[in-house]
Design brief:
- The chain is mainly α and about 400 residues long.
- The protein is built from 15 helices and two strands.
- Strands 1-2 form a two-stranded antiparallel sheet.
- Helix 2 (about 10-35) runs antiparallel to helix 6 (about 80-105), helix 2 packs parallel to helix 7 (about 110-120) and helix 12 packs antiparallel against helix 15 (about 370-395).
């Protein structure tokens, strides 16, 4: 099968893509109508003043979703609730499309309907629902697919695109023994996307910065400093968005608005408030990615893209377990958003590795054994739980 055939999307593939887009848009639209975090964000969208960008940023320093909703209200002449559903639905679809293209690009020999179908599973999966452990599917566990919070939905496609671009850059730099620098065009695009991710929700850069820094330090030791040029280039790529994030941080925590009194180190207090066991909740959330991590390690096919995703999850977990806000927002769990986003990225890598091991051209002559059966069963549990969670929100009318 040549490269052209690899990338061709067949009729079944287009059918699965169309079905997936319809399902995900509908889920995004309907959950926007009941999501507990939507009403305050809709009010912000209606109060925006796009003609005064400085004042807009001071009033709300992560306005990307709100600007899109403001635009949708004025273009479609609809109620803000409808506009919110349209925007969130389209953003979820955009995430699906980016993941599909990235998987097809990085996993050779896939049938288009295989990639499209598993991509849909990725975007419907949730933590395994153990009703005897926690009464609610989401609280305590979190989810790789956030439905109730519009800014988390807004940042996710940008985060995935940055992750794919940066993974490609660092892997290529390493394969060339760091002789060539990061391409200028890719560097500029990544820097702009990082700024946009901050304006959507700074949760991504909160886990991306320490993860890429950790990776570069590991490489400095492993490769005896040969990656120093690459590390400095990545720092310059991150610098503009770092400045934006610092401004957001000061505005959010020390602007005197009264909503937050700053930061506090409170180990396990917020993370453990809605679960009887943090480790069990983590296992329910990450059972499939952890299993695929073990399978991929046994097959000796772990790559640095996987490592970057797990480093982001590690740092997200650090912030989630240790940090809390002072004041009235202490129990909002706002330092969990980076962890949730990182969990989506390790889920993306897990699904990609599942496809690579069991559906790609490298399966030629191989048999799917116990690992495939176990991974498929665990993935099915996550999928059933994720579908139940959507019903829990839409049909049963729960806000979270």
């Amino acid at each position: 099968m040549n490269n052209t055939e690899n990338r061709r999307i067949g009729g079944i593939g287009w059918a699965v893509i169309a079905m997936s887009v319809a399902i995900l848009f509908t889920c995004g639209f309907l959950t926007a109508l009941v999501g507990i975090d939507y009403e305050p964000h809709e009010l912000i969208a209606l109060s925006l003043t796009p003609s005064d960008p400085v004042g807009l940023f001071k009033a709300h320093p992560e306005p990307f979703w709100h600007l899109l909703t403001y635009l949708a209200v004025n273009v479609f002449r609809c109620r803000v609730e409808i506009a919110a559903g349209i925007v969130s639905g389209l953003l979820i679809v955009a995430t699906y499309v980016i993941a599909f293209c990235a998987i097809r690009r990085t996993v050779p020999g896939l049938e288009s309907h295989e990639a499209a179908g598993l991509d849909l599973v990725l975007h419907l999966a949730g933590p395994i629902y153990a009703w005897f452990f926690n009464k609610t599917p989401y609280l305590g566990q979190g989810s790789p697919n956030i439905w109730h919070n519009p800014t988390s939905i807004a940042v996710r496609p940008i985060a995935l695109l940055v992750f794919v671009l940066v993974s490609s850059m660092v892997i290529k730099a390493r394969s060339e023994d760091f002789e060539h620098g990061i391409p200028a065009g890719t560097a500029v695009l990544t820097g702009l996307l990082l700024i946009l991710s901050c304006l959507a929700k700074p949760s991504f850069v909160q886990v991306f910065y320490p993860a890429i820094f950790t990776l570069m330090v590991i490489w400095l030791i492993m490769y005896r400093g040969r990656n120093l040029k690459t590390a400095l280039q990545l720092f310059l790529v991150c610098l503009p968005s770092l400045i934006v994030m610092i401004l957001q941080f000061v505005n959010a925590f020390y602007s005197g608005s009264g909503k937050s009194g700053g930061l506090a180190i409170k180990p396990f207090v917020v993370a453990g408030a809605r679960t009887r066991s943090i480790p069990i909740s983590l296992l329910l959330l990450l059972a499939f990615p952890l299993l695929m991590l073990v399978i991929t390690a046994v097959k000796k096919s772990l790559n640095w893209s996987d490592a970057l995703a797990w480093l982001m999850l590690f740092w997200g977990l650090v912030w989630r377990l240790l940090l809390a806000e002072k004041g009235e927002r202490e129990w909002h769990g706002n330092f969990s958003w980076g962890f949730m986003l990182a969990s989506y990225l390790v889920w993306y890598c897990a699904v990609r590795n599942y496809l690579r091991h069991y559906f790609s051209e490298q399966m030629t002559g191989n048999k799917r054994g116990f690992g495939f059966v176990l991974a498929t069963l665990v993935l099915a549990l996550h999928l059933i739980s994720g579908i139940y969670y959507i019903g829990y929100l839409v049909i049963l009318g729960n806000g979270m």
